[in-house]
Amino acid sequence: MITIARIDERLIHGQVAYAWTVAYKSEAIMVIDNEIAKDKFQISLLQMACPAGVKCFICDEDKAVELLKKYEKRKIFVVVKHPGTLLSICKKGCGLEAVNVGGLYFKEGRRQISKTVYVDPEMEEIFRELDSLGVRLENRTTPTDPEEDLMKLL
């Protein structure tokens, strides 16, 4: 079971590893990224950032779908860099109830919609498609922040 799916370009860092994992009582953190899943150095860095006692999966989209189905009774916190990753796993059969959008940072071609979220036209289109699939999209930087409806910010 996915306890929370979060979009955060920093992936596993202090806030993700401790605040979000604890708030959502997650047994594992799953980083889904097709490129990072091929990079042994990046994998080792992410595994070191994962808190003791919390299982860490770093995998590509196909493996993520397989593992999420296999461990559907486990409490797994999913974190990705880009909304396209979540749309892809939805289309491959992993249902998502909600997505927290918390860390998409400034880059050329992106516009700011909240304190920590900058989006480009491609991301906006992906968010609209996720919304049309019934996925609730919310913006929060920390688990204690009030939820904001991401679609109202676009």
Automatic annotation (TrEMBL):
Domain of life: Bacteria
Main location: cytoplasm
Pfam families (UniProt xref): PTSIIB_sorb (PF03830)
UniProt GO MF annotations: kinase activity; protein-N(PI)-phosphohistidine-sugar phosphotransferase activity
GO biological process: phosphoenolpyruvate-dependent sugar phosphotransferase system
Matching InterPro entries: PTS_IIB_sorbose-sp, PTS_IIB_sorbose-sp_sf
Subcellular location: Cytoplasm
This protein's name: PTS system, sorbose-specific IIB component
Organism: Enterocloster lavalensis
